[in-house]
Write a structure and sequence with these properties.
The protein has three helices and four strands, in the order αββαββα. By secondary structure, the chain is of the alpha+beta class. The chain has a four-stranded antiparallel beta sheet. Helix 1 (6-23) packs across helix 3. The longest helix is centred in the N-terminal third of the chain and has 18 residues, at 6-23.
Amino acid sequence: MSKVNLEAAKQIIAGAEEEASNIGVQMVISVLDEGGNLIATHRMDDAWLASIDIAQNKAWTSVALKMPTSNLEEATVPNAELYGLNTTNQGRIVVFGGGFPLEVGGKVVGAVGVSGSSVENDVKVAEAGVKAFNQTS
């Protein structure tokens, strides 16, 4: 699959939701296309409302910067090179884990963002979404 469409988003969400259920957390999972446009957002029962924007912004950060959001953690702490980066782009840049680009042949074709638990759990669930995408592409 060279593009992220609704069918791909459903598979990404299914893979991510399965992992969230396995670790016992309620998550919001968002999938964006290569232009940062929303394809789908899935809020599991009882997931935090705040996680809707956070998940979408994690995905947007990953597609906009073509990297996992966790890559920004060290560079954005006080006195680091990119401190304050999260205040740019109308506050959409997220500088902690849970967002991953989706790639086909080394080209970013979209992104997944997950929010609703600890950063460690957000990353695990997002990685499950990436794995589901990679199995279909």
